[in-house]
Design a protein that fits this description.
By secondary structure, the chain is mainly α. The chain has one domain. 68% of the residues lie in helices and 0% in strands.
């Protein structure tokens, strides 16, 4: 899934008012950061490779698969590491840290069935096992041309739900901007699939 899909979906699923905790800025930020953090290393990787002048095709066909980068990506998508941080949150009785870990876990759970040959070792460092799904969120050779529109539809529905849930204009403007980014991505994906 693309990062903005994780953001919208995680907020829609996890940021609900419950008796144990009300919606708060701290809770929303923890969920948002947890939704984005597993992909953060990818953004740093991409920026580093672009600064080095590496061609786009080489970045995603070769550099991405280098063992050093894979270890970095996998550490941000590691369920054992997330579980250790969640235990710390439970021990400290921190709803914010637990929500952060729940958001990271949801990110990993949603990525697992949508990566064909570019998935992570979700049990690293305990295991080097990778799940190779028959479905890819982006690759049309592995149903990406079906999975991506479904992902976008679900994410946009989550965005509409969030527009109703959040009363403040700053949050609504941010959600609208995220939803508009889908229009640009949908156009790019259409060109990619036809090209």
């Amino acid at each position: 899934m693309i990062t903005t899909s994780h953001l919208l979906l995680n907020l829609a699923v996890l940021d609900k008012s419950r008796p144990a905790y009300p919606i708060s800025l701290a809770a929303s930020l923890a969920i948002a950061i947890g939704a984005i953090l597993p992909d953060a290393a990818m953004f740093l990787f991409y920026a580093a490779e672009k600064i080095r002048g590496v061609p786009e095709a080489t970045i995603w066909r070769e550099s991405y698969y280098q063992p050093g980068w894979q270890a970095v990506f996998d550490s941000f998508n590691s369920l054992p590491i997330i579980a250790a941080v969640a235990l710390l949150g439970w021990w400290r009785k921190s709803w914010v840290l637990l929500l952060f870990c729940a958001s990271m876990t949801l990110h990993v759970a949603l990525d697992l069935p949508l990566h064909h040959n570019d998935g992570h070792r979700h049990f690293w460092p305990l295991s080097d096992w990778r799940f190779s799904s028959p479905v890819s969120y982006w690759d049309p050779q592995h149903y990406g041309n079906i999975a991506q529109p479904i992902e976008q539809f679900v994410a946009l529905c989550c965005g509409l739900l969030l527009l109703r849930r959040y009363p403040g204009w700053p949050a609504r403007v941010a959600i609208i901007l995220i939803m508009l980014s889908y229009l640009a991505f949908a156009g790019y994906a259409l060109v990619f699939w036809r090209g």
